[in-house]
């Protein structure tokens, strides 16, 4: 709770790992954020809300939606950046994506994941969305590894801070 509050107010602290990983992906691929419109589909405290706050801190106009949002497709079609994190299989289809948009699929339906080598039910219909998106994350090898990388980096940073505060 402290980290979310700190992040929301721009104070020092650690970002939630998956949202932090998403931001690193966007940075690594040179996605211009300031002035863009993002739609975050999902409102969880560990993914949807934090990623929206991180985007907002980078001067992105953020709209939060969920699976019951009226006319979700029309809202998504206006977005330069789509972050799907709701856990509803193929809720977002290719025709919902604005041509040239960046699509981050961080959603999954855990009841259908059996083996990482097979297709999983994710929020974005990858095959149809990739024809319109400029950049799109595949599942399961897109956002997941970035989550782990951020977790490891923040663990090291926390350890260094703790050791530093003891005077080494």
TrEMBL record:
UniProt entry keywords in alphabetical sequence: Amino-acid biosynthesis, Hydrolase, Multifunctional enzyme, NADP, One-carbon metabolism, Oxidoreductase
Domain Tetrahydrofolate dehydrogenase/cyclohydrolase NAD(P)-binding: 16-162
This protein's record includes keyword Calcium: no
Pathway the protein contributes to: One-carbon metabolism; tetrahydrofolate interconversion
GO molecular function list: methenyltetrahydrofolate cyclohydrolase activity; methylenetetrahydrofolate dehydrogenase (NADP+) activity
SUPFAM superfamilies recorded: NAD(P)-binding Rossmann-fold domains (SSF51735)
Group of enzyme by EC: hydrolase
EC number from the UniProt entry: 3.5.4.9
Gene Ontology CC, one term: cytosol
A Pfam family this chain is assigned to: THF_DHG_CYH_C
CDD domains: NAD_bind_m-THF_DH_Cyclohyd
InterPro entries from the UniProt entry: NAD(P)-bd_dom_sf (IPR036291), THF_DH/CycHdrlase (IPR000672), THF_DH/CycHdrlase_NAD-bd_dom (IPR020631)
One GO process term, biological-process aspect: amino acid biosynthetic process
Subunit field text: Homodimer.
Protein name according to UniProt: methenyltetrahydrofolate cyclohydrolase
Organism lineage: Bacteria, Bacillati, Actinomycetota, Actinomycetes, Kitasatosporales
């Amino acid at each position: 709770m402290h980290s979310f509050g700190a992040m929301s107010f721009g104070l020092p602290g650690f970002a939630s790992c998956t949202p932090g990983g998403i931001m690193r992906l966007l940075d690594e691929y040179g996605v211009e954020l300031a002035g863009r419109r993002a739609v975050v589909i999902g409102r969880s405290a560990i993914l949807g809300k934090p990623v929206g706050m991180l985007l907002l801190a980078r001067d992105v106009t953020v709209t939060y939606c969920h699976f019951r949002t009226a006319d979700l497709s029309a809202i998504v079609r206006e977005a330069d950046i789509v972050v799907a994190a709701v856990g509803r299989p193929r809720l977002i289809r290719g025709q919902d994506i604005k041509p040239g948009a960046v699509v981050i699929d961080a959603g999954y339906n855990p009841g259908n994941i059996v083996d990482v080598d097979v297709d999983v039910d994710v929020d974005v219909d990858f095959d149809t969305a990739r024809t319109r998106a400029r950049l799109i994350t595949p599942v399961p090898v897109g956002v997941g590894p970035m989550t782990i990388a951020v977790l490891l980096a923040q663990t090291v940073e926390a350890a260094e801070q703790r050791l530093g505060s003891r005077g080494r």
